[in-house]
Design brief:
With 174 residues, the chain is mainly α. It has one domain. The longest helix is centred in the last third of the chain and has 29 residues. The mean pLDDT is 89.
């Protein structure tokens, strides 16, 4: 006899519903992971030749879409408080929202989830290259290429990593 025989439909629905406190905890964990990785790898996380290891956290959006998005946006805010670009780099919190939606929309599609990572990388790269051009006059196309390469590597690897976690722990959250 399975455990499902002892659980009625009403109780099963309440188990499936995720509590607000769990959602807040997931947002906090995501933001904390991004912030810690951002500060640990701060020397290579800014300007043109950046390799922001914290970007691996974008993969959290394939398991917990809303919590991953909110946590990453908060994490970006805290990490960018120390940006050499100053307050203008805080705009990237807003830019991350549509970029992360590219991953969220394609998260349950086999290989298309990686296309979501590429689209995310394009949006972020355009923003960073533009801000570097406006702030420091750095060449926009060169920085677009540099940032895009690092973003694609980190975003696709983050998606791959969290996809493994999702399948191993059978996390079908949404």
């Amino acid at each position: 006899m399975t455990s499902e025989a002892f659980i009625d439909d009403k109780e099963l629905e309440s188990i499936k519903k995720v509590s607000v406190s769990l959602k807040v905890a997931l947002i906090a964990i995501t933001a904390a992971l991004y912030t810690v990785l951002g500060y640990l790898f701060q020397p290579i996380s800014f300007l043109g030749l950046q390799f922001r290891v914290a970007e691996l956290i974008v993969g959290m959006c394939i398991i917990f879409p809303f919590e991953g998005l909110a946590g990453k946006v908060l994490g970006v805010f805290f990490v960018n408080l120390t940006s050499p670009l100053g307050a203008i780099d805080l705009i990237s919190c807003i830019i991350n929202i549509p970029a992360l939606y590219c991953i969220i929309i394609l998260r349950n599609r086999r290989f298309l989830k990686y296309l979501g990572g590429v689209l995310y990388s394009i949006i972020i790269s355009i923003y960073v290259a533009t801000i570097l051009y406006v702030s420091f006059g750095l060449p926009i196309w060169l920085n677009l290429l540099y940032v895009f390469i690092s973003e694609v590597i980190l975003a696709t690897f983050g998606i791959f990593l969290f996809d493994i976690i999702k399948s191993r722990f059978n996390l079908d959250y949404y």
